[in-house]
Automatic annotation (TrEMBL):
All residue ranges annotated as the Tryptophan synthase beta chain-like PALP domain in the record: 19-305
Family: Belongs to the cysteine synthase/cystathionine beta-synthase family.
Keyword Amino-acid biosynthesis assigned: yes
Upper taxonomic lineage: Bacteria, Bacillati, Actinomycetota, Actinomycetes, Kitasatosporales
Catalysis performed (reactions): O-acetyl-L-serine + hydrogen sulfide = L-cysteine + acetate
Alphabetized UniProt keyword annotations: Amino-acid biosynthesis, Cysteine biosynthesis, Pyridoxal phosphate, Transferase
Gene3D superfamilies in the record: 3.40.50.1100
E.C. number(s) listed in UniProt: 2.5.1.47
Gene Ontology terms, MF aspect: cysteine synthase activity
Record InterPro entries: Cys_Synth/Cystath_Beta-Synth, TrpB-like_PALP, TrpB-like_PALP_sf
Protein's UniProt name: cysteine synthase
Cofactor: pyridoxal 5'-phosphate
Keyword Transferase in record: yes
Source species, domain of life: Bacteria
Length: 316
């Protein structure tokens, strides 16, 4: 039998490893009430990475870097990381694929679906009280790493490979997809890896205004106090060493309720369930897009993960 294939670009393909599926995510044009007709909001859909979040990028980059520099053997090593979920899930997938043991230290308020996915991927989970804060969780991970011979701690909030992943992939992808026409980048800040790497690349290639997004209840970039809040993934409560504040032109703080409400609004407007930090990014993007300075502009934001990771939080 002769099979003919159309001349159209072929995106269906055979890959040998899930690693090949990381990145090259599309930008979705999002239309929301309150965004002027002539202003474009384009959201980078990071839930389309294989493990369903933006964290596949830094997880892969950190792991490759550790293997290349000899911090981790090519197989049979032990990876220990502190993560409220996304980074842990990405690392767990790469570890099972490469034959490493994976231990994830996570706050005890992480959603049940995150714990279940981690277990399914064969990771070991160590829970720590969330009341003690993220820095206490890091200290726990560091103790565990010291007590586990031959283990490696990626330390996503101070590992330069986290920033490099976004400088090498997220930034160039946005520049290519918009043919260089990106006026504003709106980006949530957790470790600061996404913002720092993406903004650094884009600022080297185009005149882009960079807006950082943080929870109103943990507004450390705005000079406030860190604290508990309801936007998982951003607002770590401290400014990480990776966050390059010289790249930030503007900071928008988002109340918890606005993030959750806007995540629902985006989900209904696009048909794509988005996570709460995506709601925060969309809320901030709409605020910026409504300013007369940005009439007719292209505003690009990052939607870090899917709403399906938060269903058990039932904020509806
Ligand atoms: N949103 C979600 C859901 C995340 O998991 C993360 C990563 N922790 C972010 C936003 C922020 O990304 P970054 O760590 O690169 O600042």
């Amino acid at each position: 039998m002769t099979v003919t294939t159309p001349d159209a670009p072929v995106t269906s393909r055979v890959v040998d490893s899930v690693e090949e599926l990381v990145g090259e995510t599309p930008l979705l044009r999002v239309r929301l009430a309150g965004i002027p007709e002539d202003t474009s909001l384009l959201a980078k859909l990071e839930m389309l990475n294989p493990l369903s979040s933006v964290k596949d990028r830094p997880a892969l980059a950190m792991l490759r870097d550790a293997e290349a520099t000899g911090l981790l053997p090519a197989t049979g090593g032990t990876v220990i990381e502190c993560s409220s979920g996304s980074t842990g899930i990405s690392l767990a997938a790469l570890c099972t694929l490469r034959g490493h043991r994976c231990i994830i230290v996570m706050p005890d308020n992480a959603t049940e679906e995150r714990r279940l996915i981690l277990r399914q991927l064969g990771a070991e989970i160590v829970t720590v009280p969330h009341q003690e804060g993220l820095l206490a969780a890091w200290a726990h991970a560091e103790r565990l790493q010291r007590a586990t011979p031959g283990s490696w701690l990626p330390h996503q909030d101070r590992n330069p490979a986290n920033v490099q992943a976004h400088y090498d992939t997220t930034g160039p992808e946005i520049l290519r997809a918009t043919a260089g026409r990106v006026d504003v980048l709106v980006c949530g800040v957790g470790t600061g890896g996404t913002l720092t790497g993406t903004a650094r690349y884009l600022k080297q290639h185009t005149d882009v205004h960079v807006v950082a997004v943080e929870p109103a209840r943990s507004a450390v970039l705005s000079g406030g106090e860190g604290g508990p809040h309801g936007i998982p993934g951003i607002g770590a409560g401290y400014v990480s060493d990776l966050t390059d504040l010289s790249l930030v032109d503007d900071v928008v703080t988002v109340p918890d309720e606005a993030a959750a409400r806007t995540a629902d609004e985006v989900t209904r407007a696009t048909g794509l369930p988005v996570g709460i930090s995506s709601g925060a990014a969309a809320h901030a993007s709409r605020l910026i897009a409504g300013r007369s300075r940005w009439a007719g502009a292209t505003v690009v934001t990052v939607f870090p993960d899917s709403g399906e990771r938060y269903l058990s939080m039932a904020h509806h």
